[in-house]
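Internal tracking record. Fields below are filled automatically when a chain is submitted to the structure queue. Please do not edit lines marked as system-generated. If the sequence contains nonstandard residues, flag them in the REMARKS field before resubmitting.
Queue: standard
Priority: normal
Entity type: single polypeptide chain
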Amino acid sequence: MDLRFTAEEAAFRDEVRAFLTSAVPAAVQRKVELGQRLSKEEMIGWVRILNAKGWAAPAWAPEWGGQGWTATQQYIFKEELHMAPAPEPISFNMNMIGPVLIAFGTQEQKQHFLPRVANMDYWFCQGFSEPGSGSDLASLRTSAVRDGDHFVINGQKMWTSTAHHADWCFLLVRTDSSAKKQQGITFLLLDMTTPGITVRPIVTLDGHHETNEMFLDNVRVPVSNIVGEENKGWDVAKFLLGSERGGIARVGLSKFRVRRAKQLAQQVPVGDGCLADEPRFRERVAAIEVELKALEMTQMRVIADSDKYGHTPDPRSSILKMKGSELQQAATELLMEVAGYNAMEFDQPFVTGERESLGADDWALTIAPNYYWVRHVSIVGGSNEIQHNILAKTLLGL
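SYSTEM-GENERATED OUTPUT FOLLOWS
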């Protein structure tokens, strides 16, 4: 198997890199570099810059506003985004609900939603996890009872990222309580302005409001908002989760963090030299870089076989998810080592971007919050423990 990029793919990388050099607003790029959160307006503005070029959802088929890029082109694009650095478009829109609608949606759903999803006219969030039903997603209890041409939904969703920004939510509900756990589940689209929805913030350890609780009290959703078939939402969810787990590897993001750690280590004095010259630090950097190269090779093998699986997730996406999340955490640990005690002096405005006056000497102030934030990546998208179970079943037959 040849895992080298072709001349055409190398030229494509140059094209992407040139575009990002000129297209990313300087203030936005600075925030991404420092690990600050973008405002809703900044994120929407950036995605619309991409969409004007046709690159907001380039993996989609051209008839739905995409470029029909190959899996390799998608990988190159995402890596260049991370390395620029530039914001990654909202995954809920571009990598989750968009591909789901293309694969399972009705013609009317595609025509209505896809252009609005790509342009961020609709910001989507994901209503999957529930209290006591996170990694064991099939044990969800939120119910949807048919009432004429509507479902009446009651229940609670948990850890609903960006629900406070969202216009719509794609969620799983139980429509047949007598069926087995993976059956009797339906995939629905929910307008977040519908009466009966309450969103409450969850402020995480980094002091940031990203996730939420969402309560659903007699919320009425049209039956026409089903994606796929009633009681067969698990098939749709598996398709979506395969995309989510593959994307969580974020090799380029870890590469960027390691590169930044090496650069910043040159500013940290140690004895007569700097931290970047210390053997122990150099060993840690080299160890992470070796593992990143191995993960990149695994990612390329998955990409090379991407046509094999169709709507069924490649089991190796669980490997990408597990090792990718571990290396994201290792890279933030490296940055914490560089920042040292200076990382203790942070407050939330530095994370959210509410305070704009970050000077050249303030680089350490966002490292600790982002270190704390990245602790969660080994849990989201199905915890790493669950991924071990998937691999044991699918690859080892246990």
